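dude i think i finally got it to work??
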Amino acid sequence: MADEWFEFAKADHFWMQWRHRVLRQQLKRLDVPIRSALEIGCGHGVVRQMLEDELEIPVDGCDLNRHALEMAEKGRGRLLVYDIFDQNEKMLNAYDMILLMDVIEHIDDDTAFLATSLRHLKPNGIVVVNVPAHMSLYSQYDEVAGHKRRYDSRGMKELFRVVHVRPISIVQWGFSLIPLLLARKVVLSFVSRERTIRTGFEPPNRLVSKMLGAMQAIETAMPFSMPIGSSLFAIGQKQDESSPDEEPL
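look at this
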């Protein structure tokens, strides 16, 4: 992720609140005790901080971006400069849940990255993934942010199948943001790359921010998931590699 993004992605940003609300709703549906968690690619630690406050458990966070980690606040869990491919034995098979919140879209080989991430889970542990959705929404913003791709539900199910994860929930969110992302795609074609992250992520004023927050409140209050969205949220359970593939619930 571009370092500039961390300057705008604060806990009170409407999109951060929206993603956290979806995370909270989906975790409430789990019938699995979560006592320890690792956020891989935690960046400046906002997700970790919000989740620790929500679940009241330690959440370790790891990243390779020292600048981002220096921006993170201390919490119950540890903040680590850690490459998951180093596979520290003390961290393998250690966590009830791992989180990859807008991480794997930055990785060339997302399959290998996810498979290695799963080694940090206990048997039958839970993996939580959030990614941008639909290549039709791919724009200069994605390029500057370092996104290799955007995802759809079918692709996420296949990714889970390959790495032996049983899907528990795959939902899309941000339905009302789709027109804005289509408009962003056009607008950013006239914006310099240096101004892309600010223009594409940060609301221009407080009024717009409040309007976007209201959209979030309305959509997340719906008793059903959106049929399509600007982001895709998936939860799965780690399976033994010898287990037969299972269809999602």
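The radius of gyration is 17 Å.
im so relieved honestly
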